[in-house]
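Page 37, top half.
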Amino acid sequence: MNTRVTTRVVIAAGIAVTMVAGATACGRGGGGAKTADGKQITIGLAVANLQADFFNQIKQSVTAEAKKKGIKVIVSDAHGDAATQVNQIQDFISRQVSAIVYIPAGATAAGVPVKAANRAKIPVVTVDRNPPGEPGKSFIASDSVAAARTLGGYVAKESGGKGQLAILQGQIGTTPQVDRQKGFGQALKKAPGIKVVSQQPADWAQDKAYSVAQDMLQAHPGIDILWGQADAMALGAAQAVKASGSHKKHLIVGFDGDVAGLKAVRQGTIDATMVQQTRKMGRMSVNTVVDIIKGKKVPAEQLQPAFLLTSKDKKKATQFINTHP
């Protein structure tokens, strides 16, 4: 990247952090959790992309829990760009935040901010994605391997153990993409009649998944099962099936349990999803930061179960929509 482009990224990142910080800083003054020298704890929350409901749910939970504890939060939004996020976290380090809660924007260069924070002796707690080779002090996420294995078992049962499967993958190499692929694959080993006829990345995006799924359906008309490794991609796949004009029944499943996904399951647009405990993970990240600052030992991984939700359980879908776990 040339100097002029780098400068623009740094300036833009700084502006983004500053603007969001003014709106979301909380717990000013008063009591609450403090650092060892008696100062107010400040968390830098580096979010991959606030356009995604999943990450917004985490942000809302972090800021709400921090407010209860008298902790200040500064939020940055990388808009899915890893280079921007590196600069935003460097800004957190310059501000001397007490700790960083980090949701990497991608697999590329994900460990760079952790190394920089470690050099500055600022602890990092990672959420949803953990940089390979440079993990945070604690990693908080769903147990995606187990959850995807459960989802794969549901698909095997509902399809009668037979079918042609298309997989719309998330960002290749990110923790959730790798783990979901692994867990689902473990389930498919018990259903050899299900054949993966196509798999392509759609980078967690509904519009890209729609386009990718259209190509898949045209190339492989026999596809009758589609799995989006996130709900947004499952919704894109459902749109593609509808646009194809096919009257064949397609089994469509997602993963995440974001609000749009929950509503789609309730409506029967998609058949099932795995509901992550998004709000809980946000609260846990704040509590983990406090424990680290107090000198307590924290687990290297804090993996949470996700819940299978199918279109047959509309009452449970409504419950999750009203109060997300």
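Page 37, bottom half:
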Amino acid sequence: MDRCLLSMINCALPRAGKMANLQRNSMAAKYPIESEGKHLDSFLNELEREHAVKEISGWQTGFVNLDRALDGILPGLYLLIGPPTCGKTSLAKQLLDQLAVHNNVPGVFFTLTETSKELRIKTLARLSGLESREIRRGSAYLLHWYGVPKAHYGDVNDLPPSWEKLKQSAREARSWLDLTYIVEHVANTDLREVEKCIGELRTATNSEKIFVIIDDCQRLGQRDQTLADRLPIVVEKLQEMAVNLRTPIFATWPDLGEIGESQPQAWSEKVASPDVILVLETDQERTKKLTEPNQALTLHIVKNRGGDKGKLAFDFYPAFSKFVEVES
């Protein structure tokens, strides 16, 4: 054990003769023995001060049907599972942005694969209606492609799809973008570093509750283990972190077929820890009605400790990194 740490531990321990006395006093101070009847009046007063009538208990996601099913976003672990290219990262980034917009709460996106630049492009594409690939090519390309001179417009709806529209969309989002953070992590990042960073953000934002997204959380496990072996270990640690920090953690996990679960419901039996398990699946029949590469997806809520189970329908527009809730 580290000598400095050992010294701190030794200093914190009382001499044996004083142990019993110290324990009794500290326990009484930390955990006062008071009945629920004594707390009743103060708790009722606290509830009475909540004048706003809420349809859901937790934070709004910006998706009405998802809010109703989940009862909003509450502290705990949310696990999103889906195959590659189905839009897990785009959905997670959209949720982060929409929680900041609708709830005025800070959020952090831990990316273990995508760059911060790509994640910012996803947000700008969704906000501006410009395709991600066009944004990557920069303002010169946009102005040349659309033949639009640099100009300033009063109403964003009157703007042509140009660099000016992109900049105005970004300016209008600044108020809530100030609440969101992207943290890029290098190889061998572990959960201790993630938890430390969340603590630093809590201090910086002066907020106890932060919406935390961990994309591709399987990379927090041991690289020499299969996904099937990593799954219960990583998820258990994330659940413990969510409980300890008393904050919502939304983590994505890839379905590469290694675990061999063909039915979405089977995932709820594979991992017991999460409060909510969501599984994205392509709706082949509905996708045929959309223009390629747009996808129709079903979001299965296969586990939900705080609300309903079931399924919701979404359309995913990859060019704009945008999910739209539709009636199934």
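Margin note: The longest strand covers residues 295-304.
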